Amino acid sequence: SPVPRVRQSTYCHAVQEHCATMKRTVRVVNLDPAAEDFKYTVAHDVRDLISVDDVMEELELGPNGGLVYCMEYLCRSNDWVEEILDPYGDDDYLIFDCPGQIELYSHVPVMQQIVRKLQAEGFQVCGVYLIDALSCTDAAKLMAGTLMALSAMINLEIPHVNVMSKVDLVPATDVEKYLLPDSELVLSELHESTSARFRALNNAFGSLIDDYGLVQFLPMSNGDEDSVELVLAHIDNAIQYGEDMEPREAAEREDVDDPVEMGLASSSVGGTAAGGAGGSFGGASAAM
């Protein structure tokens, strides 16, 4: 899995905690049937419908096969999806914490189907892809992470925000190189570290990234409220969250000093965030 469970859970927890300090309500829905524990408060849990452990035991499937079966079952469970979404309206913001297995975002269409269900219910959805800065410390890993992000962006066909977490754990000079991957620089490092017979393949990967020109990352580190707010601002912009909301009264925001924070706190149109293939989805009227 390109997105370890702890990374997605930490992201959802950080966003939920940050929004709580802003007096902005965010609800998190777990869509990972293999999840074991959470750092955040769960509003709804797909394991109440189906879990990987039960599927593996009853159908004698492996972990990946069990996960794919669970997600396909979820896609067919319209009643459950409608039941959890029914209480929410235009002013609600949801985060859907999704599995991280890349196949769910590349050649298995289940996440596309889930996104379409949310959109059919009136949700505006934004994908949030998470990648660990520590996993990009060499050219091959950075290239792989960039290609996985690109694959998710193309297949989901929704507004997308790519986030690089734990940037505080790598040198600042390296962070700048990671956030906007330079294919020429990455390729030069790849050519030095790989056999010459892979040169054409590496060049093809670099050309693919350049041709699309879509992938760049936002920095985020645990405990850095400014980085969390930056990510949320990009998601809000992607889903046009809060554009139609009335400004909050002065009494409601008397403990908020930063005018940017006040503007974000007053917005509540809904968002969806889903963690998977590296991250989560953010969307208005629910964040995925």
UniProtKB/TrEMBL annotation:
The keyword Chaperone does not apply. InterPro entries: Gpn (IPR004130), Gpn3 (IPR030228), P-loop_NTPase (IPR027417). Keywords: GTP-binding, Hydrolase, Nucleotide-binding. One of its GO terms (molecular function) is GTPase activity. The keyword Transcription regulation does not apply. Small GTPase required for proper nuclear import of RNA polymerase II and III (RNAPII and RNAPIII). May act at an RNAP assembly step prior to nuclear import. Belongs to the GPN-loop GTPase family. Binds to RNA polymerase II (RNAPII). PANTHER family: GPN-LOOP GTPASE 3, XPA-BINDING PROTEIN 1-RELATED. This is GPN-loop GTPase 3. It comes from Bicosoecida sp. CB-2014.
